[in-house]
Design a protein that fits this description.
The complex is a heterodimer of chains A (448) and B (830). By secondary structure, chain A is an alpha/beta fold. Chain A contains twelve helices and 17 strands. With 830 residues, chain B is mainly alpha-helical. The longest helix of chain B is centred in the N-terminal third of the chain and has 27 residues. Classes of the chains: A alpha/beta (448), B mainly alpha (830).
Chain lengths: 448, 830
């Protein structure tokens, strides 16, 4: 770990608030934790499970024929007959996982992955599906999964936020997807950039002041502290005032530390190459992944990277190829790097989108939204490598065997982090709320 | 960034949240742990009495006193209520309850007795050998396989096992009533807030000379009972600053400083002046907008601009400034369109605009299951109306009878019928659109004629073009003109419109079983109001024709409605003390907090009713009380007795809201644009998706007027705890996070404002040379600096002036001002 990381982890900030623990103070898990943190690679738009990880020979054989069973009652758009995947599938690694030609580099890491191929949600539109995926509800305003995890476990590093999201979309539910809703706002994500923005140069709001030198600001802080202390001496003790006085010191420390943490130039060329940084196509997501590793390494509990826009109602062939290529090398690099640093065991990496796509064609070269079946994979963080759980029907339209609902996914993620999803509750408006509402089953089959 | 934060104890009942979380953790850890918790909580409550095991001291300390008993009461049956009962209802009652069409196996699971007696196969539960209970075997698919549709999750089965291990405790009402609704089985004494409002007599007190008005009787009586003493009155300038912020959301002007030094400042005059300012309506209107989940965009999936939402916002501000009677204010928002049309144009426009309240919620516009879209909107409307007006969370009853409050699923669908008979959506297209109503306007005829003329002009042009030669140019022009015509026809005349609902086809709904719109009950539920409340009222009409909104409005504002008056006076109180007499302002149900001063609450509610619902009357009573005017200084002895100040032995020190912080920064630097109402410059006026760049947030008008963009709110607001415009917000939380410090240190808004004030003070208007620091403190804190402060500020200023390194963009005075704005005192009200 770099000197910087070590300094951040020394946690000088935590002592300042002695007397009333910070709501971000690290809290022990309630059951033995397998993972300490999460890196969530969110593929916005709905990547096609049928063209990536869910191999359906029958779809291939019956290309152009009608779907032999009913389509769902509610569909987002009209689709026609079956459309085979334009990409060949082959088996990879000792586990023999099926991966399409879209992900050659990720395929090389197949033995690290555990697939869930029977995921299903309920909302056929992006906004609803994103909210369902991130907050467990497409009907009500609820805290996001990262906020719940921050609330449950706090931050491993008192000088950094517990939840950071990089380049999120601000549509389709926007900040609600990484917000804290009724949980204390400290648990909402700190946002770096937004969809479509280059990761180069993204920063936290108000992190720097171009008009004042660091020396002046130090003097300013010293004066401010004196002013605050005088006021407090007049009024008598107040926890709130003291906390606010101290928050300026923390802010100043972060302001010095965070830019370095976000500065990737200290990484070796070999590392950058590993993530595909420097290569036009893979540079941006590579930077996201490398930044995610640096943040995770420094103790941020939940880091989300977002990539899009996987919404191929048309142009499937061209666009899915382009998108997959942009993330293939960076993801492979992230998995290798985490492993090499001994971090993979305690870092849960998650890959997936808000829904899958239909096996039936929209136009000639497109697929519609499909919340009834999609694939996610996990790596590290105590998951069982090289397994695949659940199945869709023979065409991949519906989740069929060992179905996994979004709530089950959330329950499993919490379990891996050492939290029983039924016990992580927050009292709001007279009710105890949970990420998993009244459902959720831990998928033991993918846990090591 | 958020390395560390503290939540203000005065504002959020954080301690209780923690205790609940702990409790929940314990209840999940199996029976042994549960027993420990129970014993720790209620040593005398269990037969066998003696304290076996060590009471969990940690837990006891973590729980606050008021919540402890309530928790213990519900603890015993919590597992049942939270897990077992819902599972029974969902998986078993189709065949094993009084409501089963055909009772199967002679077994009823809707009472404990039924379970113990069992059915054809014998007792379903055995208390002496819980693990061999037939129920458990069936759930484990051992010999008998239940439920027939598939095995329950392992965790659910474990919950049943745990519950049986505890001796299968059920609430006493369960045995009597089986699976009947909570609404029917409510213990009539249980919910204080449904009792009729009685004007209480003033309680006796000792320290009579402290009292300024009846509020103080109630407060002092409690203080004296607790052995507490009220604090001294706040210093004049402190009180002036408090009044300004509390009434208008803005600080006093430095030029008013001398007024506070006058020997006989007339408070009544000052208070009346403040209430007469339009900024009163702006500030208190914003609080109402929190309740009404006001926003200028839809949020959710398709973040469409709510282009005309601002009319509702301005309506709220206007109404509060007029001191519109609260019953009328509510009536207009629920059924303004259904009232007998007013001859006054402005009143009629307001009545239409007011119903925007019902339609401002986030909607899943691209939801393709349009039935679901519509019923979700209904649900959101029920939620917003019931929480805002009655402080009840009725929306729970969408899927099951309310577990804690007297609301049954039938009550819910009776209300749902009213809103389903109301038209909120103009269409259910792929991306659906909401209803908007043309506002009456004498100009409308002219606007229509103008539109007609434009149409005719275009039609004439087309005709000419068609008759002319078909050169390339002309063909292009023809095409363009035709599309213009089409566009113009579609757009219609440019009438002024408001987001507003209208009545649709009156219809009663069937109960949606477990909230599923595809699974409907056989019979319809007549439109109406929650039975347990109606029963306590003298008269309640039933909706017959029309949607029933009119009747709903009358019902809510009837003088004997037990909740409406109580809820609103409590909200006003909260605005002046940071916490309500009922600490859960939108939950007056069984799971809400009980009032700290029930008699005072009822007295205020009676005052509201007797003043014909005058809200300003309540405001005035509160700010002229000795209770309100106390100092907020710490007092060790009182703090030892009542650390949370629940008895009001002092005023609470409160942090400003996000809006007030921003407005105050602009105000002290004389940059605040005082314009009232309307839309800010650079706001995105796009008819579809919000496509703004955020430039609108640079406006220097009051924060109230900055557009509220769901999903991408103004970052400064998010930083200072206003982050959720998608849902009813009854209380802002107050956090202290380093992001806020970063804002104060680095945001251009702060730096630029400080620099602006520096320039003003530097100009001839203020005698800088004479007493710069003095002037500054009056401007920023509305007080004189102490000698120490003066010295420190001057020293800091000198240091900045003597800085020889790289020249700073900011002047020394600007930096000094910025530092003072960043100080605690600037954003706290004493």
């Amino acid at each position: 770990m770099s000197g910087l990381g070590a300094m951040l982890l020394s946690g000088s900030g935590s002592k300042v608030l002695a007397g009333k623990p910070s709501p971000l103070a690290a809290r022990p898990p309630t059951i033995p934790a397998k993972a300490k943190r999460v890196i969530f690679l969110f593929m916005h738009g709905g990547p096609s499970h049928l063209d990536t990880f869910d191999y359906k020979p029958r779809l291939h054989r019956e290309n152009g024929q009608a779907l032999p069973f009913a389509k769902p009652r509610v569909q987002f758009a009209k689709t026609g007959n079956l459309l085979k995947s334009p990409w060949a599938f082959s088996k990879h690694g000792q586990s023999g996982a099926w991966v399409s030609a879209l992900f050659p580099k990720v395929a090389s890491q197949a033995d690290k992955l555990s697939f869930i191929k029977s995921l299903h949600g309920s909302n056929e539109a992006h906004g609803g599906a994103l909210l369902k995926m991130h907050t467990g509800s497409d009907t009500f305003v609820r805290p996001s999964m990262g906020a719940w995890i921050s609330y449950g476990l706090g931050s491993e590093n008192p000088d950094l936020p517990s939840f950071i999201t990089i380049n999120p979309t601000l549509g389709h539910g926007g900040v609600q997807n990484f917000g804290s809703a009724f949980l204390p706002p400290i648990h909402q994500a700190t946002r770096l950039g937004k969809r479509g923005q280059s990761v180069k140069g993204i920063t936290i709001a108000n992190l720097t002041n171009p008009d004042i030198t660091g020396t002046v600001q130090k003097e300013q802080l010293a004066f401010l502290r004196k002013q605050n202390e005088l006021q407090q001496a007049r009024r008598g003790p107040s926890q709130a005032l003291k906390a606010r006085t101290d928050s300026f010191d923390l802010a100043f420390r972060m302001q010095s530390a965070a830019p370095d943490l976000m500065n990737l130039s200290t990484e070796s060329k070999a590392t950058k190459d590993l993530y595909g940084i420097g290569n036009d196509k893979t540079d941006n997501f590579g930077r996201q992944c490398l930044l995610a590793r640096r943040l995770a390494e420094s103790g941020v509990r939940f880091v989300q990277c977002s990539h899009g826009y996987w919404d191929q109602h048309s142009n499937l062939k061209e666009q899915h190829f382009k998108l997959a290529h942009e993330v293939d090398q960076p993801i492979c690099g992230l998995l290798k790097d985490l492993e090499a640093r001994g971090l993979l065991d305690e870092t849960l990496v998650i890959w997936g989108g808000e829904f899958g796509r239909t096996p039936t064609a929209q136009g000639k070269d497109g697929r519609d939204h499909n919340p009834h079946a999609f694939t996610w994979w996990f790596a590290g963080g105590g998951t069982k490598p090289g397994v695949s759980y659940g199945e869709t029907d023979e065409y991949g339209y519906y989740a069929a065997n060992d179905k996994v609902h979004v709530h089950d996914l959330h329950a499993t993620i919490l379990y891996l982090l050492g939290i029983e999803h039924e016990t992580l509750t927050y009292r709001h408006a007279g009710r105890d709320f949970r990420l998993t509402d009244v459902s959720g089953r831990v998928i033991n089959e993918i846990i090591a | 960034m958020s390395a560390s934060s503290v939540t203000d104890r005065n504002v959020v009942n954080q301690e209780q949240e923690t205790s609940d979380a702990i409790l929940n953790r314990h209840t999940r850890q199996g029976p042994a742990s549960l027993e420990r918790v129970k014993r720790a909580l209620l040593p005398n409550h269990f037969p066998g009495g003696a304290l076996r095991g060590i009471p969990s001291l940690v837990l006891l300390l973590a729980l606050n006193l008021t919540s402890r008993l309530a928790l213990a009461e519900s603890l015993n049956t919590e597992l049942f209520e939270r897990q077992i009962r819902p599972a029974l209802i969902e998986h078993c009652y189709e065949c094993h309850s009084a409501s089963s069409k055909r009772l199967k196996g002679g077994l009823r699971l809707d009472s404990r007795e039924g379970m113990l007696n069992g059915g054809d196969s014998g007792p379903a539960i055995k208390l002496d050998a819980p693990s061999s209970s037939l129920l458990l075997k069936a759930l484990n698919q051992n010999q008998i396989e239940m439920p027939p549709k598939g095995k329950l999750s392992q965790s659910m089965i474990q919950a049943f096992a745990a519950w049986l291990d505890q001796g299968a405790p059920v609430p006493s009402s369960f045995d009597r009533e089986g699976n009947q609704s909570a609404g029917d089985k409510l213990d009539k004494d249980a919910l204080w807030s449904l009792e009729s409002i009685q004007r209480p007599k003033l309680p006796s007190i000792q320290k009579k000379d402290w009292v300024r008005n009846p509020i103080d009787h109630f407060i002092l009586h409690q203080l004296e009972t607790q052995g507490l003493e009220p604090s001294v009155p706040a210093a004049t300038h402190t009180l002036m600053r408090r009044l300004h912020f509390d009434i208008t959301g803005l600080p006093p002007r430095a030029t008013d400083f001398e007024r506070g030094s006058e020997s006989a400042l007339n408070f009544v005059v000052l208070v009346d002046e403040l209430f007469a300012r339009p900024q009163f309506g702006e500030f208190w209107g914003r609080k109402w907008l929190d309740l009404a989940r006001y926003a200028d965009t839809n949020g959710f999936d398709e973040n469409y601009n709510y282009l005309r939402a601002w009319r509702y916002r301005d309506y709220v501000v206007r109404s509060l400034n007029q001191d519109k009677a609260y019953d009328q204010f509510l009536m207009e928002q629920i059924a303004g369109d259904l009232l007998a049309p007013s001859p006054s144009l402005s009143i009629q426009r307001d009545r239409i605009t007011a119903t925007g309240f019902l339609t401002l919620g986030p909607k899943m516009l691209a939801e393709q299951d349009k039935d679901k879209l519509l019923i979700d909107i209904v649900d959101e409307q029920i939620d917003i109306v019931s929480k805002t007006t009655m402080g009840l969370t009725i929306a729970c009853a969408r899927c099951h009878d309310h577990k804690f409050d007297p609301i049954s699923t039938k009550d819910y669908y009776a209300l749902a019928g009213i809103f389903r008979s109301t038209k909120t959506m103009a269409n259910t297209d792929h991306v659906s659109y909401w209803t908007e109503t043309i506002l009456p306007d004498p100009e409308n005829e002219k606007i229509k004629a103008e539109h007609q003329r434009e149409l005719e002009d275009l039609a004439a042009q087309i005709k000419t073009l068609e008759a002319s030669d078909r050169s390339e140019d002309k063909t292009k022009e023809l095409k363009r003109t035709k599309s213009q015509l089409k566009e113009l026809t579609k757009r219609g005349p440019r009438y002024q419109r408001a987001m507003a609902v209208i009545d649709g086809d009156a219809t009663d709904l069937r109960v949606h079983i477990r909230g599923n719109h595809l699974n409907l009950a056989k019979t319809k539920t007549a439109r109406g109001f929650p039975k347990q409340i109606s029963e306590r009222m003298a008269s309640a009409e039933t909706p017959r024709t029309g949607s029933g909104r009119l009747e709903l409005g009358r019902w809510l504002t009837a003088s004997d409605h037990p909740l409406t008056a109580r809820v609103i006076v409590n909200r006003i109180w909260q605005g002046y003390f940071g916490i309500g007499l009922v600490a859960t302002p939108s939950n007056f149900g069984l799971r809400g907090e009980k009032p700290s001063h029930p008699q005072l609450l009822d007295w205020l509610a009676s005052e509201l009713l007797e003043s014909r619902w005058s809200l300003k009357h309540i405001h005035r009573l509160i700010v002229t009380s000795a209770t309100y005017q106390q100092s907020s200084r710490h007092h060790q002895r009182s703090a030892d007795i009542d650390p949370d100040n629940r008895f009001y032995w002092r005023q609470n020190q409160r942090r400003l809201s996000a809006e007030s912080i921003r407005d105050a920064i602009l105000f002290v630097s004389d940059r605040l644009n005082p314009m009232i109402g309307g839309v800010v410059e650079k706001a995105d006026r796009n008819e579809t998706y919000y496509r703004g760049s955020g430039a609108e947030f640079a406006s220097t008008r009051r924060a109230l007027y900055l557009p509220v963009i769901r999903g991408r709110g103004y970052e400064m607001f998010n930083t200072f705890d206003y982050s959720d415009s998608g849902a009813h917000l009854s209380q802002r939380t107050t956090t202290t996070v380093p992001h806020q410090a970063l804002f104060m240190l680095n945001a251009p808004l702060v730096g630029d404002s400080a620099e602006a004030l520096a320039k003003t003070i530097g100009s001839s208007q203020f005698p800088l040379a004479a007493a710069p620091v003095e002037t500054l403190y009056q401007h920023l804190f509305f007080r004189r600096p102490t000698p120490t402060e003066s010295r420190q500020a001057s020293e800091f200023f000198d240091t900045l002036e003597s800085q020889t390194e790289a020249p700073s963009e900011r002047s020394p005075l600007g930096i000094l001002i910025q530092s003072l704005i960043a100080a605690n005192e600037f954003i706290y009200v004493d």
